[in-house]
Amino acid sequence: MYAQLLTFGAAFLGSAVESVEALTIVLAVGLTRGWRSPLYGTVVALVALAILVLVFGQLIVTRVPELTLKLIIGTLIVLFGLRWLHKAILRSAGVIAMHDENKSYEETLKELHGSVLRQDWVAFVIALKGVFLEGMEVVFIVVAVGGTSGSGGLPIAVAGGLLAMIVIAVTGVIVRKPLAQVPENTLKYAVGVVLASIGTFWAAEGMGATWPLDLASVLGLAAIYFGASRVAVMMIRRRKPVMA
Amino acid sequence: MRFLRAAVAEVIGLFVGDWAQTGVSVGILGIGWFVLSRIHVAGIAFLIAIALAAQIVYATTLEARERAGRS
Questions:
Q1: Which domain holds residue B26?
Q2: How many CB contacts within 8 angstroms connect chain A with chain B?
Q3: Which residues are CB-neighbours of A230 under 8 A, at least 6 positions away?
Q4: Label partner for A120 (CA 20 to 30 A): which of A52, A192, B28, B41?
């Protein structure tokens, strides 16, 4: 039960963050150039991403031995989670700017204004590229978290990812502007801690380690990563004045 | 072709921000694997997390210092 909740939660949160970024691009294109082409681009990107999830998900679940899978995917999740955590620490400490959906929206608009000819084709490609590239992270999170969660893990992770995409898309359709109020950086921080913890748990299991209290050890791992991140933020802030 | 290159860069970028830092993380996991295969004590794997956490503290403070030095 806890493993399923963890799988669903990690897939949901990770997918929600990336869906916000993809939605910003699609909204920027749709609101300025009409909806038909960006929606086609979005659908093509979503189909391509779904194929990637199905192919890699099935391949991983059916072909790779469990311990090997945990070691390899666990290691990749650790690297992925640490990367998100690294950026979140620098953002929290004011070293790099917070991700700003309004700024991303304006940048996409600028990109569109630079191309007057073949408007529909440009709108299609920008939406396709934005959704596909942002969606790659969703694919990795869903396949990795679902594939290593044992039997039945992949459908739960897919459900978490899909629900996040639907919630963000519906919210976007209702408000019809970039979701700048979503605490995207806080979410990325949380997902970074969760993924680094789950990844360490699985990678160590793949190495043959046993954890005291089994899955509950993930909480201890999360405490270690969260504690370290706060120490890092504190050390950076002490050295320099906060920029943002 | 540009789209494919962007997709490949995106995939690599999922796991690698700084090659040296990624190398250190993989090195820690490799040493952890070596130790775990010889010492079978429950909970010893927490040391891997502590080493990775220490690594991220070092890497982020180092990057902050470098950025401050450049500006």
A1: 18-70
A2: 119
A3: none
A4: A52
